[in-house]
Design brief:
Shape: globular
CATH superfamily: NAD(P)-binding Rossmann-like Domain
Helix content: 40-55%
Strand order of the largest sheet: 3-2-1-4-5-6-7
CATH architecture: 3-Layer(aba) Sandwich
Strand content: 5-15%
CATH class: Alpha Beta
Bound molecules: NADP nicotinamide-adenine-dinucleotide phosphate
Distance between the termini: 35 Å
Number of strands: 7
CATH topology: Rossmann fold
Number of domains: 1
Structural class: alpha/beta
Radius of gyration: 18 Å
Largest sheet: 7 strands, parallel
Oligomer: single chain
């Protein structure tokens, strides 16, 4: 299959870890010039080094907090400086807050929207004019299963689920509006993906609820079982990266405005 990605340029947010790191690596392998951003500079440098070791590609990096509108405003100049132009945007940075509805603070509510939906909306507003001027582009917004299904405790997602749902709807609306500009916008919706940072966060969330390590393990196993799918397993960041790379490639030219779920048949009933 011809992906047609060689020589393209891409910005991947949250590109220093997990799904973003593997997406940057997979794009680099296809000959894409990649710029990754995240907050921690050392993690960005480590990721760039790691990708260089496996692909020989030089990865550009930039430290950026996607929850800060004033930092997002610097993206166009940073992209021009480090990539020259932009063909592909992967809005991947994001995270979740898992706690009972009545325990969610107002700060957590605002932060949940800021790192998920607001960041994707604001970054698209900065990048889309560059794509229009260039004659086209491809955007993938990374959402999550909390946007389409209700999870059992301890993964209560009254805060995160609506933000992730907004990302799916936003992608669909934007695809429709930008189609005349030859810009495709899709949303990738991962199931449960084993990324070390994410697991450490879940452990911390569980500990806050006074779960012992044993109980945390049991809760996770129980939760997996509750999702009900036979052969349930955690996905890998590479499996999601493969889908993102396909979606931004020429091979996916008729896929636009879609919410693409990759979750190994998790039960959504
Ligand atoms: N893993 C899963 O099971 C799963 C499931 C469904 C959906 N997702 C979605 O997939 C995406 C990636 O998840 P992941 O599990 O791969 O994440 P991860 O391993 O926790 O990595 C998160 C990445 O985002 C960066 N980041 C976090 N906050 C940021 C901020 N405010 N500004 C800029 N960068 C920031 C992190 O670097 P710094 O901390 O240095 O900034 C890191 O590079 C997210 O949108 C997530 O909601 C994941």
């Amino acid at each position: 299959m011809e992906l047609g990605l060689a020589g393209k340029t891409a910005l991947v947010t949250g590109g220093s870890k997990g799904i973003g790191l593997e997406t940057a690596r997979a794009l680099a392998r296809e000959g894409v010039k990649v710029l990754i951003c995240a907050r921690r500079e050392q993690a960005l440098a480590d990721a760039a080094h790691d990708i260089m070791q496996t692909t020989q590609a030089k990865i550009e990096t930039h430290s950026l907090d996607v929850t800060k509108a004033e930092q997002i405003a610097t993206i166009p100049s940073m992209v021009r400086e480090k990539l020259g132009r932009i063909d592909i945007l992967v809005n991947n940075a994001g995270t979740g807050t898992y706690k009972p509805f009545l325990d969610v603070t107002d700060d957590e509510l605002l932060e949940g929207m800021a790192i998920n939906f607001f960041a994707q909306f604001r970054i698209c507003q900065r990048i889309v004019p560059m794509m229009i001027a260039r004659g086209g582009g491809r955007i993938v917004n990374v959402s999550g299963e909390t946007g389409i299904m209700t999870l059992n405790a301890p993964f209560l997602s009254s805060c995160t689920g609506p933000a992730k749902a907004a990302e799916i709807r936003f992608s669909n609306v934007l695809a429709n509006e930008l189609a005349p500009h030859n810009i495709r916008v899709n949303c990738v919706i991962p199931g449960f993906i084993y990324t070390p940072e994410r697991f450490a966060k879940w452990e911390r969330e569980m500990v806050k609820r006074n779960l012992s390590a044993d109980n945390a393990e049991r809760a996770r196993a129980q939760w997996s079982t509750n999702q009900g799918s036979t052969g349930m397993r955690w996905g890998t960041p590479q499996e999601i990266a493969n889908l993102i790379v396909f979606t931004v490639s020429d091979a996916a030219s008729y896929i636009n405005g879609a919410g693409l779920v990759a979750d190994n048949a998790m039960d959504k009933s």
